[in-house]
Design a protein that fits this description.
Blueprint: E1 3-7, E2 10-12, E3 18-25, E4 32-39, E5 46-52, E6 58-60, E7 68-73, E8 78-83, E9 92-100, E10 117-118, E11 122-126
Parallel strand pairs: 2-11
Antiparallel strand pairs: 1-3, 3-8, 4-5, 4-9, 5-6, 7-8, 9-10, 9-11
């Protein structure tokens, strides 16, 4: 049974950077889809960035392309989200999510209903 714990959130000024971490306990092998989501008050949860652990292939939502980078450290069983050039509209609770995916499935990574494992979230504030 995989558990996910996020950390690294905080408060930054616009234009600043943060790196979020998501530590996975349990068995996460090379056939997992790992994704960062965010949810601002009054808004739906949206997929931000995703990685397929087997190939390292990534995907990003348009609002964060060129500013955010998702990566993984397999030795540490940890997922990262490097966020640069932060904007006030990036402020939200950030969650990491995962599910086993034996082969990559197109058109699903950004859907919150696709995932069966979630962390508790870490808050990002941008002023």
């Amino acid at each position: 049974h995989v558990q996910l714990v996020e950390s690294g959130g905080g408060s930054v000024q616009a234009g600043g950077s943060l790196r979020l971490s998501c530590a996975a306990s349990g068995y996460v092998d090379s056939r997992y889809r790992m994704t960062w989501f965010r949810q601002a008050p009054g808004k739906e949860r949206e997929g931000v960035a995703s990685i397929y652990t087997g190939t390292g292939v990534t995907g990003y939502a348009d609002p964060v392309k060129g500013r955010f980078t998702i990566s993984q450290d397999n030795a540490k069983n940890t997922l990262y989200l490097q966020m640069n050039s932060l904007k006030p509209e990036d402020a939200a609770m950030y969650y990491c999510a995962g599910r086993r995916e034996y082969v990559p499935v197109a058109g699903t990574w950004y859907r919150s209903t696709y995932y069966n494992t979630w962390g508790q979230g870490t808050q990002v504030t941008v002023s």
